[in-house]
Specification:
heterodimer, A: alpha+beta, 58% helix
Amino acid sequence: MLCNRLIMSVFILVILAAAASVSVAGEPTEDVRKTTDRIIAIVTDPGLKEADKAQEKSRQIRNVVDERFDWEEMSKRTLARNWKDRTEEEKKEFIDLFGKLLERTYLDKVEGYSGEKVLYVDEKMQGNYAIVAVKIVTKQETEIQVDYRLQKKGKEWLVYDISIEGVSLVNNYRKQFGSIMTRSSFKDLIEKLKSKVEEES
Amino acid sequence: MARFHPFQKRSLFVVTPVRCLVCFVFLISFFGTSCLAEEGNAPSGAILPDSAFAATETEGHEFIRLAYSESQAPQAGPIDDDSRTAPNQKGDPDDDAIDADPWEDDAQSMDSIPDPLEPVNRAFFVFNDKAYFWFFKPVATGYKSVVPEVGRICIRNFFTNLIMPIRAISCLLQGKFEGFGIELTRCVVNTTVGFLGFQDVARQALDFQIQDEDLGQVLAYYGIGPGFYLNLPFLGASTLRDTTGWVGELYLNPLDYMVDDFWPNVGFRSFDILNKTSMRIGEYEALKKASVDPYVAMRDAYYQYRLNQIEK
């Protein structure tokens, strides 16, 4: 009797869970999903598994990521009040370096992909802005909460910040860069970024 | 066999100095918080919700308010920001303008945690870095190659189930009765059906998630601010408040009542830590590789992570 009831409740729970995961899928979520699916396809592509294809693989991932990530917006938000004082060249150089650093960080994360499940949990939209909440379930059964923050530019929704377990990437870099710039200068920051990007990239 | 006596002479011996430490840290924490709150001209002293506390800090300290964070005015919900985002929709020509996003309240801020002990913290950060690369990582890697992942997950589940009282009581103290119930049920189900907690049946079958609560969050719930940042040797990133919570948790850990001989107790704890470390190899390396100043990166990540946990 009790056993029956337990099975019933489990059954209902499963159905509810399935229903919940279907219900949210707006434009921003679709955009994030598209990119994620393409990346997973590249990472799991058996044709790109060999060691000599590593370069080709990361090139392909980079292409997909570049389309979805708004490096300029990220740079702006990271430098925050320091952004205005920069010359055009400085901005360009910064976007380039910071973009590379972020790209590599992201690539490192993605290349370690080994069958984690990606669940699209929630979506919030407000004018041009959206947050897409994603849950990543690892093989070790831990859940990682990832939020993509997107801004609509033209037709596409572009990512300008990612937070993992509530830790915003842009916020984190802003603190680091801020601390460097109060201690020394923008030049020093650029130097540090350069050496970071060059190191074993 | 009769080892289940919490008030044996022996355990009291261990417990008394720890108790003194708790009181001491508690006092400092309280003192520190009220001082900081005063500096920020907080109206109601130390008793402020955590987010409000963080906001008042920005006024008193070197934290710089950003041009675009004006919208962080109290209770500026997404709706209030409509007026700010509206002009951008017309394709604002000013490239330099950094548009405030409607969720300004929980990101894009310069708030951070006071770090008066930075030189000491940085020293311990270097110490921990070396300790990790020279000792913990090699040992955990060796362990990882011997024990298969399934086994390590079971062991992790066992220890997680064991410290249920910490989570349950933290839920209770925050008035999260549902969480309290979930934790109790989880413990009963996992300890019986899940073979002493080695299997997390409650989550797999009933979708009863682990309630991620601890005493640090309880203190935050009662309005105690983080105090200041601490980077402790071996333990890593923490704050005055969270360290206080951690010390309090030593009382709630059933392990100390079940195994009260010193060395076996240390053995169990080390094993737990070793097992956990083996599952987290690579995380610290990733943080280090991605950051320009790993110390600041860690400090801020901890700060943001805790805020997120406290909000939940």
